[in-house]
Specification:
The structure holds three protein chains of three kinds.
Chain A lengths: L1 H29 L6 H17 L5 H29 L5 H22 L15 E4 L2 E4 H23 L1 H11 L1 H6 L4 H27 L7 H15 L4 H21 L2 H18 L14
Antiparallel strand pairs in A: 1-2
Helix pairs in contact in A: 1-5, 1-8, 1-9, 1-10, 2-3, 2-4, 2-8, 2-9, 3-4, 3-8, 5-6, 5-8, 6-8, 9-10, 9-11, 10-11
Chain B lengths: L3 E10 L2 E11 L4 E5 L6 H8 L7 E6 L2 E2 L5 H7 L1 E3 L12 H8 L8 H6 L2 H20 L15 H14 L4 E5 L7 H16 L3 E5 L3 H7 L2 E6 L2 E6 L1 H6 L1 H8 L9
Parallel strand pairs in B: 3-8, 3-9, 6-7, 7-8
Antiparallel strand pairs in B: 1-2, 1-4, 4-5, 9-10
Chain C lengths: L1 H32 L7 H17 L5 H23 L4 H21 L18 H19 L2 H11 L1 H5 L5 H27 L9 H14 L5 H16 L7 H15 L7 H17 L2
The chains are: A mainly alpha, B alpha/beta, C mainly alpha.
Chain lengths: ~290, ~260, ~290
Amino acid sequence: MLEQQLINALTLGSVYALFALGFTLVFGVLEVINLSHGAVFMVGAYAAMTAVTRFHAPLGVGILAALLVSGLLGLTIDALILRRLRARKAPHLIPMIATLGVTTMVTSAAQGLFGVEVQRFPEAMLPTGEFVFGEVHLRTLELGIVAVAFLLMALLFGVMRYTRQGRALRAIAESPKAAALLGINVEGLFMLTSFSAAALGGVAGVLIGLDFNAVTPMMGAPILHKGIAVVILGGMGDIRGALFGGLFLGFAEVLSKAYLSSQMGDAVAFGLLFLILLVRPVGLFGRVLERKA
Amino acid sequence: MSLLSIRGVGKHFGGLHVLEDVSIEVPGGAIFALIGPNGAGKTTVFNLVTGLLKPSTGSIAFEGRDLAGIPPHQITRLGIARTFQNIRIFPDMTLLENVMVGRHHLLDYGGLALLFATPAFREAERRSRERALELLSWVKLDHKAEATADNLSYGEQRKLEFARALATEPKLLLLDEPVAGMNPSEKAVLMEEIRNIRDRGYGVFLIEHDMRFVMNLCDRVAVLNFGRIIAEGPPDEIRTHPDVIEAYLGRGDEAEVS
Amino acid sequence: MAAFADFWATYSTLVYSVGIHALLALSLWLTLSCGLLSLANAAFMGIGAYTAALLTLQLHWPFPAALLGGAVVPAVVALIIGAPTLRLSGVYLAMATLAFGEVTRILILNLQITGGPEGLNGIPLLTTGWHIVIILAVAGYGLARIRRSRLGRAFEAIREDEVAARLMGIDIEGHKLAAFTLGAVLAGVAGALNAHFTFFISPREYGFENAVDILTMTILGGTTSLIGPVLGASILTLLPELLRFLHAYRLAVNGLILVVVVLFLPTGLWDARRFRQLLKNRRARKGGQP
């Protein structure tokens, strides 16, 4: 019933928000629509899966593995591809197209390495137990997912608000040239951003993998599409927008699936996306793409 | 009746008032200049006339016809053409193609004619090409007609933009800083071109910073400062107008804007 | 002659695929020539495929009429969604078309009439090589003629500088809609042709990955001329056959190609201007030799 659905919605929404946060971070700082974010999400899930099943590591270590592996992948993509395109001052569509190519490569590689079947985390490694409030069951797993997601998001907000690096990132988001003139190591921070965003995406991958207990090479695509819907809804480049957009989508989707139909649940993300693009393309909190230098 | 009639036009963006109660009458067959310090709002006036922006107050009429609500591409068809402060040529096209784009609304063949390369289509294209080459020769660029536009020097790009604007067969030509970045000999050449254009019957309305250029070339000058017109008249009057001198140079110092 | 018959028996499917992919690449080329990155062409292909297949399967229409249906229905959809979404610029448009593609796929997946996830089976094998050749030739000719007319120049102008194009008297919105819709028609016809030679279609063939494939073909071949998309389509249709030994990894090659082309050969393989430049350099060097 409703309370149960709300718990599902919160769980799903918090992971959507985490994913969208990484996506919007790259857009805000690097001004790139990184369509390989779905691929790093999937890689994170597999990194955790491998750590847990192959190396018998506890789940916490698996999550850490996801963070590091995805982060490194994001960093590599930046170093090999995005950095070159930055140097060329390529128009916005170009890096977007390049990251599409990366997605294909990574997805295909995952299919080759792991096969296309759904993989699951072994029961023994998952947290058991649940809190029961009357008819409502709150699984420890769900609590854990929400906790990890919000912890990371809080960390990101904290860094952006209160640290030197965070201020530097916000300065870059306003104007990379001005930031450089202020002595900020713009390239270094670009790389840090790519790493961090991908790391967050990777953790989101594990969390979704845990929530549905399913990991496949194809899991990146649907989440990417929803991530796009979330950041457009919330506003490109705005991390509050990613948070609210992600939660909103989680609720919209779960409630649609519960009370309308399963198909509507999938389509609702895009319906909202369309609507917002037509009415207010910059999203609820967003700013326009043109940056002043 | 003036060719272009700007009456009581104001433009604000939120709390920012860029233009306030601007009234200008631009005659046909003459060269009219709009000058003023940087940031006075001159390019905004052009953007309003060409329909890229809507006036917050006031009205703009061309040949007696109110331009309110008319989209930019139709304003061009009515006979207003424009060049840009930071040159907007089409870099990947040849010079000839650039100028031929200007002929767009004058080529009236439809989809079927173009698909079957009918005689009407071929004739229209041929005449368009001829006219484009003619205009390129006016600005002495016809020898480079097949070169790609991004290979041109700065001054040549300005001339190309000029030719392209003429290709739309305008009655009024809006030139936004047409000689910015040119050396003195190039400026002299363009000055001659603009005089020729006026003598052929076109109206010219230009924005410029180069005072000598403006004073030697123009028939009438209006001065914009902080979004308001502070003076209007023939160049000699403007040159010695106290408000104008103050606007440009502050109080004291130079007694004349020369 | 017998050798040819053997060759044909083995490879006719591949040749047909090349033709259809060429048509798809040209459809994307058309939208790109106007500065629009539309990721919706795979969806339009699907709409055309399902329309035509249903017309022949359920209503037993003759093939040419079904092909026409496969052209008209995507056009109508393009006009409806184009008008509002083409106001968006660059990346926003790309994402809106991506979203549209997803919505289409989900709809096809869930509607009764389209057979749901199992798709449509038993579509009559009506496409012949002649159909593909003729339609491709007509499309190529039409696009070539457009290029050499005020329409093509207008598209190019819009692509290079919208503001300047607008002030040349070009109706930007109208032209973008025309390019988008015509692209949808080409993609739809390609889908209709494809359905009637693969005999079976399912929603899986018209999704995001397919849109990326078409984009890769067009970018690989090059967007500066009509030859580019055809070249790119040929290479990327034949390549997986040659790379069978890579199994699942052969799709990775497509991704790699896209990245490499974007980084190192942005105008694609076929770029007339680059060839002229190379030729000029070659002559200059030869001239300098004693």
